[in-house]
Amino acid sequence: MNAQLLVCDQITNNTLLGGHALGTVLNQVSIPALPFVIEMHVLIKLFDLPRDEFVDTALIITNSSGEMIDRTPATVLRNYRAEDQVPGVDQDVSLHLIVTEPGIIYIRCMVNGEEAAWYPLTIRLQEQKVS
Q: Which residues of 93-128 are buried (b: 16+ CB within 10 A; e: fewer)?
């Protein structure tokens, strides 16, 4: 099994095209103050899944010290691809994360309790303009 993550400012499920429309892919976010709530969307792509098995997925968000700052509930997923496709599934997860310090956070995709993919996101504090 393989996993990929993309973090965006928005993701829309496009049922007509059978996929997701992504907003801006985020590598960094600048925030005006601390603490601050960041809204983000994570696209989890799992492929090469066993055709007839279920997997548990969850996201764990850690700071640069490895301390967990958030976790999503587990979700049970299975293959949704047609017979002529590589078995897999896409999942869109919406997060509202409370940020208390600048630095790099890591969004970790857990599948059946093991890390399958990770994504770094840099959090920067905007410089305050002196009037």
A: bebebebeebeebbbbbbbeeeebbebebebeeeee
Q: Could you tell me whether strands 36-47 and 2-8 are parallel, antiparallel, or unpaired per DSSP bridges?
A: antiparallel
pLDDT band per the 50, 70, 90 thresholds, residue 120 = very high
List strands edge to edge, sheet with 2-8: 2-8, 36-47, 88-99
- Please name which of 106, 99, 105 lies closest in space to residue 126, comparing C-alpha atoms: 99
Q: Which helix (H) or strand (E) holds 48?
A: none
Query: pTM (2 decimals)?
Result: 0.90
Q: Is 38 exposed, middle or buried (0-12, 13-18, 19+ CB in 10 A)?
A: middle
Distance CA 10, CA 41 (A): 6
- Between CA 48 and CA 121 the distance in angstroms is 26
Element (H, E) at 71: strand 68-71
pLDDT class for 55, splitting at 50, 70, 90? very high
Token digits for 91?
């999942």
